[in-house]
Amino acid sequence: MNISLAELEDVEGIRLSAEIKPIIDTDLEDEVRLCVPPKDSPNYPKFEKGIQEKIEWLRQELKVYGYIGYLAYDGEGKPIGFIEFMPAEGSPIPIEDVTNTALITCIYLTKTQGQGIGSRLLQATLRQLWKIGVSEVKTIVSRSPQWINAGIYRKQGFQLEKTFYRVGNPEPLDLLTYRLDGPQPKIQAVEQRIKPDLKDNLPVEVLYFHSAQCPYSSAVYINHVNALAKFSKDLVTFKTIDSWKQPELARRCGAMFSDTFINGRCPFFAPPKQEQIENEIQKEINRVLELRDKS
Questions:
Q1: Are 247 and 287 contained in the same domain?
Q2: Residues 6+ positions from 171 with CB-CB distance below 8 Å
Q3: Are β-strands 190-194 and 159-166 bridged in parallel, bridged antiparallel, or unpaired?
Q4: Are 209 and 167 in a shared domain?
Q5: Pairing between strand 101-109 and 136-142?
Q6: Longest C-alpha distance within the chain, in Å?
Q7: Whole-model pTM?
Q8: C-alpha 12: how far from its chain's center?
Q9: Sign of the torsion formed by the C-alpha atoms of 164, 169, 172 and 177
Q10: pLDDT tens across 161-187, in order?
């Protein structure tokens, strides 16, 4: 591995007392429940199916490497963050070479940013992936300050490899990469503008790329179903696709994990609410009708 243990010391300078431990089968629920509403929340029922799907999905992925990530616990034994990784092969992310490549799918922290927990989770992951023979690690991040973005990765030496732009979505996604088996190569970052097949006719085609990788998927699916109920089937069609079971289709459309496409356009970055879905569908109907009137 081309980074020393000294270089893997926490770069934040401030540490919150925490235990970093590998995620094992009995810890899966601790991970999944970290990023969903609490049980007493009125929105919790929407997430129950997604929670169970995520636990089962992680259980299957755990069998591949024997590892899927790390959890951070505070001094009282309460989970406060996690990092999750898996083989890049078969993922919806458009990665050219997946040989001995791992994909970090998520880092999530509770209100502990700036206290070194994220860095320690990432450091533990890099060490473990190196030990099991992974040569390259990649991840997709946004540039939005409200999400875990490139900062935590760049401090550990990750480089920008590619920036993806999707039709209808102003938020770019950055693919970051890190070599574990030698010096970091000099990378000239490139841009890729994903242009799926666009439709300009009715019925409006809504594709929802469901993914058990995120427990929000079940809640977002319900939001779609409720939104679509507002429209006639003559105006809108709806199809759900598993982005991990149909990765080629996901890559062609530009669906990285859980995404919605309306006539080929990707209008949402964060998981959309029902009202947002309704508004975007109506906007697309209006756009198509206006084109029809002009022709």
A1: yes
A2: 142, 143, 144, 269
A3: parallel
A4: no
A5: parallel
A6: 67
A7: 0.90
A8: 24
A9: negative
A10: 999 999 999 899 999 999 999 999 999
